[in-house]
Amino acid sequence: MLLDPSVEGQSFIEDCEVCCRPIQVTYSIEDLELISFNAGALNE
Question: How do the domains of the chain map onto residue ranges?
């Protein structure tokens, strides 16, 4: 999974590469440094 450090914060849904189930990804970047990262199963 690649994160774009030019975006300060983002939340998106991506399919798992193994089981193809959706994963919600949320992250924050400050001064090009990853501050927070969370990835979990999408509650459907």
Answer: 9-41
Under 8 Å between Cβ of 14 and 23: yes
Residue 15: C-alpha distances to residues 7, 26, 36, 41 (Å): 21, 14, 20, 10
- State the amino acid at position 10 in one-letter form: Q
How far is residue 44's CA from residue 36's CA, in Å, rounded to a whole number?
24
pTM across the whole model: 0.77
The whole-number average pLDDT for the span 21-26 is: 95
In total, the chain counts a number of residues equal to 44
